[in-house]
Specification:
Elements (H helix, E strand, L loop, with lengths): L19 H8 L25 E5 L4 H6 L6 H12 L7 E5 L6 E3 L5 E3 L4 H18 L3 E5 L1 H8 L5 H4 L15 E5 L2 H6 L4 H18 L6
Parallel strand pairs: 1-2, 1-5, 5-6
Antiparallel strand pairs: 3-4
Helix pairs in contact: 4-5
The protein binds uracil (URA) and iron/sulfur cluster (SF4).
The site of uracil has 13 residues, from helix 3.
Length: 218
């Protein structure tokens, strides 16, 4: 896919049939980069085809890796609350990540510390994300943080410069959906200077996203 990719990438693992269930089954066996080696399992996206909103995080965390579902840990709880406060029905959302395996280091004993996925790993995993967008066909994709935003909008994209704006997909994209980038819910949890303000700004961005999609769509 990219000249900088030193790993095979997920493309060769994509099934011919591109339904969500076929994609999920195939992704369970993906060895497109090294991250499958130490993680417990592939954490694929969840939600229904036709969901008007797709939320894209960075990668599964410790809880997600163990349970096999996206956003079931502390970041997920904050996200659920923010969606509620933004007036977004959870049923209208498909939730996934830019990278489908947990990347971590081990500190003394057994605590597993999240590590940011590299650009190479984000690019390696992108075929799953693109296939999900094509299968779900959302009206709007919300990128939660830089890893998701840069996967879909390129490495030069800066969330800080463009958060909360409705964006068009890059011109050569195989998919059609508007985009909106905002911060990652973990960044809201970590914001020690003014967490309340960080949360309010996050909810504001989600409200823009919710307002941009047609309610009650199939
Ligand atoms: N952070 C993410 O980016 N995704 C998850 O699924 C959980 C935490
Ligand atoms: Fe495949 Fe993505 Fe997991 Fe790498 S992180 S092995 S590309 S599913």
């Amino acid at each position: 896919m990219s000249a900088t990719t030193k790993v095979p990438g997920a493309q060769r693992y994509l099934p011919q049939k591109r339904t969500l269930s076929a994609l999920r089954a195939a992704a369970a066996g993906c060895h497109g980069c090294e991250l499958y080696r130490n993680a417990t399992q592939t954490v694929f996206g969840e939600g229904r085809r036709g969901a008007p909103l797709m939320l894209v995080g960075e990668q599964p965390g410790d809880h997600e890796d163990r349970q096999g579902h996206p956003f079931v840990g502390p970041a997920g709880r904050l996200l659920d609350r923010a969606l509620h406060d933004a007036g977004i029905d959870p049923e209208s959302v498909y939730t996934t990540n830019a990278v489908k395996h947990f990347k971590f280091t081990r500190r003394e004993g057994k605590r597993r510390i999240h590590q940011k996925p590299s650009r190479t790993e984000v690019v390696a995993c992108r075929p799953w994300l693109i296939a999900e967008i094509e299968a779900v066909h959302p009206q709007l994709v919300v990128c939660l943080g830089a890893s998701a935003a840069q996967s879909l909008l390129g490495p030069a994209f800066r969330v800080s410069a463009s958060r909360g704006e409705l964006l068009s997909p890059p011109t050569e994209s195989s998919w059609q959906a508007q985009l909106l980038a905002t911060v990652h819910p973990s960044a809201v949890l970590r914001d020690s200077s003014d967490r309340r303000e960080a949360y309010r700004a996050f909810v504001d961005d989600l409200r823009v996203a919710g307002g941009a999609v047609t309610k009650g769509n199939a």
